[in-house]
Amino acid sequence: MSEPFDAEAIFRVLNQHHVQYVVIGGYAALLHGGTKPTVDVDVTPATDTQNLTNLTAALVHLQARIRVDGIHGGLPFATDANALAGMTALNLVTAYGELDLSLSPSGTQGYPDLIRAAAPHQVGNLAVQVASLRDVIRSKTAAGRPKDFDALPELITIANRQRPHDQVQNFRGD
Question: InterPro entries recorded for this chain (predicted)?
């Protein structure tokens, strides 16, 4: 599957299947005003059985396959709620581009933690719940990957412009 990236189409399918999720990662950063390009969508789904069942149906609709370097179109996998419940992360390729599921993103307690401060953002004609900028910063800091550290200065600047009375001093939590 080498379809062009279409985040709105991915969100539309998730919404059609009544999946509860929070957008995180680079796409969340873009929705908060970041400028670093991204070629995937990262989401944290709720992990209750009904939501994972809904997510399973959405993944089938999306023609999701496990993303593997060097294997065009990815690999098939067991798409069922029980299999998803045992995972912490899953990198997928879909009919609309790459989708990363992170059931427990670095620095967070997963969906219940992220949904508290999440807010709806418009993506095309859809409303999607997006992790707060502070939660995005917290997760990217905890992940500790070079690409996450590279994104932090811009995100901290945006956060400080939004809430100048409550400045983020740096990305290490000092």
Answer: NT_sf
Counting as low any pLDDT under 50, the low residues of the chain are: 1, 171-174
Ordered domains of the chain (ranges, CATH): 7-156 (3.30.460.40)
Question: pTM to 2 decimals?
Answer: 0.90
| Whole-number Å distance between alpha carbons of 164 and 25 | 23
Q: Tell me, what DSSP letter sits at residue 164?
A: G
List Cβ neighbours of 36 (8 Å cut-off, separation of 6 or more). 26, 29, 30, 150, 151, 154
Helix-helix angle 7-16:49-61, to 10 degrees: 130
Residue type, 51: N
pLDDT at 92: 97
What are the tens digits of pLDDT across the range 33-78? 999 999 999 999 999 999 999 999 999 999 999 999 888 889 988 8
| Sign (positive or negative) of CA dihedral 122, 130, 117, 139 | negative
- Going by C-alpha positions, the residue among 89, 86, 96 that lies closest to residue 43 is 89
CA torsion sign for 40, 130, 10, 87 is positive
Q: Where are the beta strands (DSSP E) in 20-146?
A: 21-24, 40-45, 65-68, 71-75, 89-94, 97-102, 119-123, 126-130
